[in-house]
Amino acid sequence: MKKLFSIVLFLSIMVSACAQKPSKDEGPSLFDRLGGTEGISMIIDDMVDIHMKNPAINARFLPDKGTEKLEVTKQHVKDFLSAGSGGPAEYKGRDLVTAHKGMNIQPEEFVHATDDLMIALDKNNIDEATKKDVLFILWGLKSSVIGK
Asked: Which pTM value belongs to this model?
């Protein structure tokens, strides 16, 4: 469960790094561009499902598949992403470094997890500009996750 939470939290933290609410003339917030509460919920559900099917990283997820804890974890991540992207939820979880301490995530795993998130964003019809923003954030924070 700790592994699942940490990887999903990692991806959510990456997206939330651009959580600044724009001024009125800057357009919609990241939260809005991700589809609000409903959109974020679908993205996280899809991302976790894709992770579980990805043989390069699913070992970090499969022991928790089908458990009640998985649903609790997913809701926690949804709240985190909502709060971090300018939405209404409140996140009370661990910071990025603490969440990944001792996991020794390898660069290849990071790439697979990032690719899976991009697939989930595509599946949820997220526009190219928003996907690029998310990707930029992910790559900017990878050193906080890899090898910790």
From this structure: 0.80
- Would you tell me how many other CB atoms lie within 10 Å of the CB of residue 140? 12
Check whether 107 has a pLDDT greater than 80: yes
Give pLDDT tens digits for 35-67.
Answer: 999 999 999 999 999 998 999 998 887 765 567
Contact 138, 14 (CB under 8 A): yes
How many other C-beta atoms are found inside a 10 Å radius of the C-beta of residue 41? 18
123 vs 141: CA distance, rounded Å? 24
HSE value, Cβ hemisphere, 13 Å, CA-based, for 2:
6
DSSP string, 116-141: HHHHHHHHTT--HHHHHHHHHHHHHH
